Amino acid sequence: MRFVSYEDGGRNGIAVATDGAANGPWKGLREGNVGWPGTLQSLIETGGDALAKAGKALASAPEIDLARMRLLPPLSHPEKIICIGLNYHDHSAESGFQQPDYPTVFGRFNSSLIAHGAPILRPAFSEQLDYEGELAAVIGKPAFEVSEAEALEHVAGYSIFNDASIRDYQFKSPQWTPGKNFDDTGAFGPHFITADALPAGCDGLMLRTRLNGAVVQEASISDMVFSVAQLVSILSSFMTLKPGDVVVTGTPAGVGLARKPPLWMRDGDTVEVEIDKIGLLSNPVRDR
Q1: ∠ CA(227), CA(77), CA(221), 5° rounding?
Q2: pLDDT digits (tens, 9 = 90+) for 125-150
Q3: CATH 3.90.850.10 in the chain, residues?
Q4: Interval 110-131 mean pLDDT
Q5: CATH superfamily of this structure's domain 81-287
Q6: Is residue 271 a contact partner of residue 210, using CB atoms and an 8 Å limit?
């Protein structure tokens, strides 16, 4: 199933694409409507068959025009956003790092999240705003010390993420947190696709990032050093992953930092991240 979160008249809404296609048709309900099932985040956190029941109920809801709605990130307030760095061999090489034999893990916070169509904002004191197209996996049931073989059973579904980074702030210290958490830089969405509608771990799907229409990143999800299953297993070895947590799985080669000269995003640009069968995340770039 394909879901989207939106806002209409100041109220949260949730819609499902009745034929599974990215362009709908969409049927949805908002807070206050009869049959309102709750937000996508609350349904995932509830677990069990709550999401499946909501999808079935929404399929009988009124058709809506998403173009008239303000889209939201699929989940606006996840407890944890766990990002993975250097998870494609070619990106490690272009970044000048030796490929790690253990995932490079850092955190984002939900205060940085924006939706499809919202502007990524470049702070006035830095020109080093970079793009990073990534696959996002959303946890669907608690995972602690799970094996790689069972890890995907704990993934509810997938979306798209642009881990836009302020590079000079990323490298002010050995920890990358500052450059990865500026407000209005974590583009997320627009759609959430349940895991049963996609290949296991999204294996074989192609990811492409475009800046002003030109392809700047292109890779297969299969090229990841650590697969979704491996990441969930490894992360669950030292923390409990909870329903609604988001694992942002890393970016392939082609980032602006590694280009000569560097290719920074600027006011007036448009950046798009597309993943086969999941959709297209598009955001304008603006100066704050």
Answers
A1: 20
A2: 999 999 999 999 999 999 999 999 99
A3: 81-287
A4: 98
A5: Fumarylacetoacetase-like, C-terminal domain (3.90.850.10)
A6: yes
* Average pLDDT over every residue of 263-268: 98
Q: What would the pLDDT profile of 153-210 be if each residue is shown by its tens digit?
A: 999 999 999 999 999 999 999 889 999 999 999 999 999 999 999 999 999 999 999 9
Euclidean distance between CA atoms 198 and 193, whole angstroms: 8
Q: How many CA atoms are closer than 13 Å to the CA of 213, on its beta-carbon side?
A: 1
Is a pLDDT exceeding 90 seen at residue 219? Answer: yes
- Average pLDDT over all residues of the chain: 96
Compute CA distances 264 → 26, 95, 211, 253, whole Å: 36, 15, 10, 15
Question: Tokens 């070619």 appear where?
Answer: 90
DSSP labels for the chain?
-EEEEEEETTEEEEEEETTS-TT--EEEEETTSTT----HHHHHHH-TTHHHHHHHHHTTSPEE-GGGSEE--SSSS-S-EEEEES-BHHHHHHHTPPPPSS-EEEEE-GGGEE-TTSPEEE-TT---EE--EEEEEEE-S-BSS--HHHHGGGEEEEEEEEE-EEHHHHTSSSS-TGGG--TT-EEE-SEEEEGGGS-GGGTT-EEEEEETTEEEEEEEGGGBSS-HHHHHHHHHTTS-B-TT-EEE----S--GGGSSS-----TT-EEEEEETTTEEEEEEEEE-
